[in-house]
Amino acid sequence: MDLTGLLTFVCLIAIAVIGVIVTVVVLIRRSEKMIETSPEAARETRPSNLSAGREDKPTSPDNLGRRDFRPESSGRIFISYRRSDSADIAGRIYDRLIDKFGRGPIFKDVDSIPLGVDFKEYLDKKVSECSILLAVIGKHWLDASDASGKRRLEDSSDFVRIEIESALRRGIPVIPLLVQGVQIPHEEHLPTSLRKLVYRNGIPIRPDPDFHRDMDRLISALEKYIG
């Protein structure tokens, strides 16, 4: 075989080898893509919700942006207030508490009392489910009266009286929240069933710029009840 024929033969062999290598590389790439897109591979590579043996809770609309959301709580907070006395400040207090603990562990309004039930029994049950009761006391909490001029606290069916009586009777901690610059009422100004309230250590909740500072102090105290 002359030199020209030898060179031609070598070139053909080289072309054939290169063709085989290209074919193998293409087949390998195609196999890798098929594995990556298979359902089995997707299940294997999907991030797990388990971290350090704990299943992470899914994000819900209620906990978006919340600094310290607790989806499951071992305690509950009952907010007792009189609308004619402190509805606005009670609303601000409630907002701060749900920002910290979520809506679940906090009971604030009696609007959800089912029709046809005994509201005294219902409120008593709701208080019994709580770990602590917050009694919001403003300027007209003590002297609020009904249409006949009778003080509401003297009425045994008054919502506020029922709530606080239930907590005191059960030994549930009661924190007076003193708003609008008021002091704790004198014992002789309260019905007998509520007089223990004056010996419960309370906290003033002042208007801005002190509101958030006072609420931080209250939240710190509540954390031991909301596990």
Keywords, separated by commas or semicolons:
single chain; 227 residues; alpha/beta; Rossmann fold; 2 domains; five-stranded parallel beta sheet; 6 helices; 7 strands
Secondary-structure map with pairings?
Blueprint: H1 3-36, H2 39-45, E1 50-51, E2 54-55, E3 77-80, H3 83-101, E4 106-107, H4 119-128, E5 132-137, H5 159-170, E6 174-178, E7 203-204, H6 211-222
What does this entry look like structurally?
The protein has 227 residues and is α/β, with parallel strands linked by helices. It has two domains: 3-46; 70-222, Toll/interleukin-1 receptor homology (TIR) domain (Rossmann fold, 3-Layer(aba) Sandwich), CATH 3.40.50. Helices cover 41% and strands 10% of the residues. It is built from six helices and seven strands. Strands 4-3-5-6-7 form a five-stranded parallel beta sheet, with helices on both faces. A two-stranded antiparallel sheet has the order 1-2. β3 (77-80), α3 (83-101) and β4 form a beta-alpha-beta unit. α4 crosses α5. It is rod-shaped and about 130 Å long. The termini are far apart.
Strand content: 5-15%
Radius of gyration: 35 Å
CATH topology of the largest domain: Rossmann fold
Distance between the termini: 93 Å
Estimate nothing, just give the exact number of structural domains: 2
CATH fourth-tier homologous superfamily of the largest domain: Toll/interleukin-1 receptor homology (TIR) domain
Number of strands: 7
**Biggest pleated sheet:** 5 strands, parallel
Structural class: alpha/beta
